[in-house]
Amino acid sequence: MRWRTVWADLLIAAAAVGLDLLVSGQAMGGYGAAYSLVVGAPMALVRRVPVPVSLVMAFLVLLFDQVSPFTANTAEILLFVAIGVAAHRHGWPLVVPVVAAGAAATAFNIADPGVGWTASTYVYAVIIPLVPAVIGLYLRGPAGRLDEPDITPDILLAGAGVALAVLGTWPDWHSGALPVWANGTMVVLAGLALGVARRLPGLVVLAEGLLLWVVDTYAPEVTNIVMSLALIAVGVFAMRVRSWLWTGLVYVASCALASLAVVDGDTEVTPFRVAITLLLVLSPVTIGRYLGARQAAREAERLRARESERLAVAQMRADRLAERERIAREVHDIVAHHVGAMVLRANAARYASPDGPVAEALADIRDTGHQALEDLRGLLAVLRDPGEPELVTDPADVLRESAERVAAAGLRVELEVDPEVERAPLVARASAARIVQEGLTNVLKHAGPGTHVRVRLAATGQGLDVEVSNDRPPGPRQALPSSGQGLAGMRERARALGGTLTAGPDERGGWRLAATLPAGRS
Question: What is 390-518's CATH number?
């Protein structure tokens, strides 16, 4: 959580205390300031332990309902804040108990002494604490971040919304219980809100729903246009939010608002009209889901195209390195062998003639040969891998970087690295890092985003064990062509160290790649 400082927590508590001073300041008795401190102090912990704070605030609602009703109202407000934070931090599992506690405290606070609890009391007691819980759950991120810099679609949506709202309602602004400026402001805001619907879909749907409820109550003549704008917002929500749960909740709420706007005191409710209302709201949801699926497919295709381009570049580099490796082996086998033989013979001849110019010449030949061998080794190292520092990088860092890259592309990566891997030889660690990188790339290429993949790198007495396994893809995918060079290159790496590599489908319907890399030269 951002801004993890004690000062932030103290500021929240001070704001809570100040809120109660404002709410109950006119009715404070001798203990008013103490009551404000008691009700506001727990909020200092709301960012860290929101569930216990929610339960404490529910208890304070019950307590101050008997002692100071104004402070009880403050505790009620702070209870809703704590419920929203708890829902945002912990999700569904812990939302139910805090909402239940909030509903019980709210019902007790709503009911006046001596007045029995009615059905309305129960309904309001559940709905009121449920609203911040739903908002907190939504803010957990059902809609992905929209990184598109082009705001042209947003401007077009806002312009079209305002045009539709104004042209369709301006003759009726003078009607209803509200003044002309209020009706005009509401319909213009309903149109402008569509300009941020792609980036804040949930907030816009909520705002359009509230405006629809207001105009249906106070300006029914403009209800149809505002309902049209609300349905457009619902369609955008369905396009941006891929969660079926949230789409279903918005659909149900939209059906309720549509029925509220369509049905009045003189309207006869028939099965046909109910079906028309359900289909009316279902249409933008269906269109939005279809457009969202198309957008997701295009994004996945772009990711695969970028990954294919990266693979092509990596393959070209691998081919160049393979050619350099072949040349290096030939140079080593031919030149190093003969130079080494020259050094050995010069050294033997020097001992046969220990004095004089001949001995000096032989010593010079021996030293020059040693230097030539050292220079040759350095040249071969550069020839095998010119200026590539990642081969000597800690494979744990390489693995984490690879996992972060494919996770950003949509894979769900579970990484397990044995601490003893650092003791393995450098060549084995470098080869393991390359095999894992290629394995993750293959999972992204063939299984697609959303697939769960496990990576395990463990040290053994003879080297390293590498495993990359993925589950069955989460949905249908388009098969991509493959040259098979990736697996061939990984097998060549393993074989160069005297190891083995196997790859194939597993019993769960996924794919498993396993390699054993013996300890080679470091």
Answer: 3.30.565.10
